[in-house]
User: Fold this.
Amino acid sequence: MNDNLRLLADKLGILTEYYDAGQNHKRYETSEDTVRFFAKQLGYKADTDADVEYSLVKFDNRRWQETLEPVYVVDKSHAEFDIVLPLSQKDGIISITAVSRQDGKKHTISSHITSSEEREINHKKYIRQVCSIDTDLDVGYYDLTVEVEDKNYKSVLAIAPEKCYANPAVDNGRIWGYALQLYAVKSKRNWGVGDFTDLKNFVDVCAQSGGNVIGLNPLNILEHNYPENASPYLSISRLFLNPIYIDIESVPEFKASDLDDVRGRVEDFRNSEIIKYEEIYPLKIKFMETFYERFLEGKNSKRQQEFKDFCDREGAELNKLAVFLTLYEERCHSVWGGWRAWEEEYRNPSNPAVKTYAKKHEHRVNFYKFLQFEAFRQFDLAAAEVKKRQLKVGFYRDLAVGVGQDSAELWSDPDVFIAGSGAGAPPDAFFPGGQKWGLGAFNPFALKAKAYEPLIKIMRANMRNTGALRIDHVMSLMRLYVIPNDKELGTYIMYNFADMLNIVAIESHLNHCVVAGESLGNVPDGFLEALESKHIYSLSVLWAERSAGWGGDFNQPSTYQTKSFTSVGTHDMAPLKMWWFGYDIADSRKADIIPNDEVMNNNYHEREMDRWKLLKALDESGLWPQDRLRKDNYIYGEAYPEGMAEAVNTFVASCPSRVFLAELENILEVDKRQNLPGVDRDKHPNWRRKLPVDLEDLPKNEMFIRNINAINRVRS
Assistant:
C-alpha cells in the first residue's frame, strides 16, 4: 500500500492495520482493495493513484468550502464553533442567535474569537475563526444562526453535559433486579410468547422481591413477513416496537367471543417448549386486523383521537415504517433481494411514486401504524406500573448495535449507512474466522452531515419508558468493524468519538436515563477510561472476572468494579447449570463451531479445571447456603451441587457493583442456552427457549424464593 493511500485512509478513519481480541493479539493488515472500497463509500475516490491525490486535496479543502459545519457538538463548559469566511469579511459577524429545540426560547449569543487561520484556495483567500460562546446555555439542541453582513448561515449547536445522567439510587446504592428475555416469559395467560402484560405483571414480581431494575432484550420491531427470523438484535427499525409483544386480549377492541375458534391453538402455543413464532405472529396479526376494522367502525372518539395524536407525534418516521412494511408485504414473495431489488421508483421514500403508493394503500399503511399505536400503549401501561411500584430504575433497555441491511431504517435513509457492507467482528478466540453480522453501519461523514439526527432519534426512542439503557457493543461509538459484502474480512471504521459520546450524554440528561456500555471483545486502549469519564457504566460478568483472562482463577467479588452493571452471564452465554455439565461444549461441537473431537475433548478438560476453580472461589468466599453446603468434589461434573445457583448468585451479588442483575435461567436451573452465536436456527433454536416456570408461579417457587432471599441478604 503506497503512502498516499495510507494517508488518505488515516484521514478518513479507515484503519490500515488492526489487532484481534485473541490471546495472541494477532495483527492484521487491511487489504488495499478494502481501503479503496471504503474510501469510495465514504465519498472519496480512490480507484487510482490520481484519484487518491485528488481526494487528499478534496479532504484538506472540505472545511474551507462551507461557512458553518452542519453541527457543533460541544461541552457545556467549553462551547465554541468555527466559521469560514472570505478574508474580506473577517470582521463581518453582526449577530449570533440560538433557538432552543427544547422550549423554543431564543437566545442572543455573546462570543469572542479565540483563534483564526487563513488559507488560499483557487486564488481566493479565506479565514477560519473559532468563536467561543460566552452565553450560558442549558444542555440540549439549538438552531444556530450567524448573520454576516447581508447573509444568514445556519447550523445546529448541541450542548453536552460534562457527564451522563446520574441516578442517585444507582450512584449511591447497591440495587439489584433481573435480566429478563421478555419473549421467553412463560405464563398461564400469554399466547406462547411473553408480552407487555407479562412485563407489567413482572414489575410486580420484581417489586415484591426487592428488585429495582428489569433488564430487557431489545424490543424493536423485527421482520413482519418472516417472524421466524427472531433475533432481537436484527431489527428492521430501532425506532419502533415488535408487535409480537402485544397482548391480544388486552386490546380495547377485543371481545371474549374472539377466542372461541382459537382456544386450542393458543393452548398448544402456551404448552410448547419452543416458541412457535411462525404460527403465533400471523395469528396475532390476523386478530389485530380484525381489531383495526372495529376501531375504524367504532365510536370511541377518545381512542381515535389518541391514535391521531400518536401518528402526529411519531410523524414521518412512523409513516416511512408503515409504507415500507406495506411495500415489503406486497413484494416479499415475488421479488428477491429485499428493497434494493424493488422497482427503482420505490427504493427511495422521497420519490413521488412512493407517496402515490402510500395514498393508494392508505388503509394498509394505517393498519401498520395501528400496530405501533397499540404496542406503545401497552408498553406505556407496563411503564406506568414501574412508577406505581416505585422501582428506582425500572426498565433497563438494550440498544442493538445495528439493524439488518434489508430494513426500514436503511430504506428510509440509505445515504447515512455505508453501502455495500455490513458490521461484524474481527477474528477472536471464539470465532477464529471473524463474524459477519450483516448489520447496517453508519457512515460517519453522512451521520455528521445530518447533524446526528439518525443517532439522536434512535437513542431517544430506546430511552422511552427507560431508567437505564444498555448500549450493545458500545465500542461502535468510537469504531466499528465493517466488512464489504463480497469479502470475509474488513477493517475498522472510526467515528467522531467525542461527538458520539456527547450525543449519548445529552440524550441521557434530557431523558433522565443512566447509560451502560457492553464492552466485551476487542476494546481499544483508553476506551474504558473515556466511558468512565463520561459516567457510562461498564458491564461485567462472572466468567470474565478472572485473574488471567478467561482461563485464570475466579476473582473474589470484592475486586469487582463499583461503576458496573454485573451479572453471572449474558443471553449469549451458557446458563450456569449448562456450563457446569458442559452441554454448551457439546452444542458447539454439534454446530461445528468446535471443529473436531480433539478440540472438544480439550474443552471438556479445561471445563473440568474451571469447575474446580469455581468451587474453590465459592469455598473461599464462605457464601454457600448453610443448609446446602458443598458435600462432594463432583468430579467430572457428575452431579449438580444442590446449592450451586444460590451460592453463585450470592457470590456475584455480594460484589460492590452498583447494579446486580439476576438471570432467571440460573435461578430456575435451566440447562439449555438461549442463543448460540454464529449459527442459524437450523443448527440451534436461537431465541426460542421458554423459561420452565409460569410467571404466576414464580413467587411461590422454592428455587426463586431461596435465591432472592440470598441476594437480598448480601445487597441490603
